[in-house]
Amino acid sequence: MDLKQYIREVPDFPKPGISFKDITTLLMDHAAFGHCTDMFAAEFREKELDKIVAIESRGFLFGAPLAHALDCGLVLARKPGKLPAATKSMSYELEYGTDSLEIHEDAIDKGDRVLVIDDLLATGGTAGAIGKLLEDFGAEVVSFAFVIELEFLNGKEKLNPHPSFSLVKY
Ligand code: AMP
C-alpha cells in the first residue's frame, strides 16, 4: 500500500515554507490506518517490548493500537502540566526558545525495553529529548518509530545510537 497517497501535504502551514504532512486524511481511511499498525507490529513483534512511549499528541494515535497489537503497556509523553502525578521532564530546543515533555515517574521501570513512537520525524529534537529522558529512567530504548520521516533534515542523527524505523520518507 502506498501510504503517501493518504497523507495530505499542506503548503505553507503553519508558516511560509513549511510543507505540513497532514495525517488526518490517513486516519480517515481504516485500511491505511490499520496498515500502519500492521507494519509497525510486524517490525517490532519479536523485540520483546515492555512499553511503548507515545509522544503528544499525534504519537498517541499510532501508539495506542500498536500497544494493543503487541500486548505491551502504553506510556504517554506529554506537554508540561498535563500529567497529574509526579513526573520527570526533559527540555529540548525549538526554533525559538525551548519546550519540554514529561513522563510519569512511576511509568517506566529500570531495564524496561521501550519503543518511542510519533507521527513524524523532522529535526529529531522532540524524539531525541524523549530518548534522553528514557535513558535517565534507566530504560533500554530499543528503537524509535515514525509514520513519516523528513530525511533531508537528518533527524536520525539526533537519535543515535538508537535505531529508527519509518514507514514513509520524504
Ligand atoms: P522535530 O522535533 O523537529 O523532529 O519535530 C517533530 C514534531 O513536530 C512531530 O511531533 C511532528 O508532529 C511535528 N512536525 C514537524 N514538522 C512537521 C511537518 N512538516 N508536518 C507535520 N508535522 C510536523
Short descriptors:
170 residues, Rossmann fold, five-stranded parallel β-sheet, two-stranded antiparallel sheet, 5 helices, binds adenosine monophosphate
CATH architecture: 3-Layer(aba) Sandwich
Strand content: 25-35%
Spatial sequence of strands, sheet with the most strands:
4-3-7-8-9
Secondary-structure-derived class: alpha/beta
Percent range for helical residues? 25-40%
Could you describe the 3D structure shown?
- The chain is of the alpha/beta class and 170 residues long.
- The chain has a single domain, classed as Rossmann fold (3-Layer(aba) Sandwich), CATH 3.40.50.2020.
- The protein contains 5 helices and 9 strands.
- The strands form 3 sheets. The protein has a 5-stranded parallel β-sheet with strand order 4-3-7-8-9, with helices on both faces. Strands 1-2 form a two-stranded antiparallel sheet. Strands 5-6 form a two-stranded antiparallel ribbon.
- Helix 5 links the parallel strand 8 and strand 9 (164-169).
- Helix 2 packs across helix 3.
- The site of adenosine monophosphate has 16 residues, from strand 2, strand 7 and helix 4.
Brief sketch in words of this structure:
This protein has helices spanning 24-27, 30-44, 58-69, 125-137, 156-159; strands at residues 8-11, 19-22, 51-55, 73-77, 87-93, 98-104, 113-121, 140-149, 164-169. It is α/β, with parallel strands linked by helices and 170 residues long.
List the helices and strands and how they pair.
Elements: E1 8-11, E2 19-22, H1 24-27, H2 30-44, E3 51-55, H3 58-69, E4 73-77, E5 87-93, E6 98-104, E7 113-121, H4 125-137, E8 140-149, H5 156-159, E9 164-169
Parallel strand pairs: 3-4, 3-7, 7-8, 8-9
Antiparallel strand pairs: 1-2, 5-6
Bound molecules: adenosine monophosphate.
Adenosine monophosphate binds at residues 18-21, 55, 58, 118-126, 155.
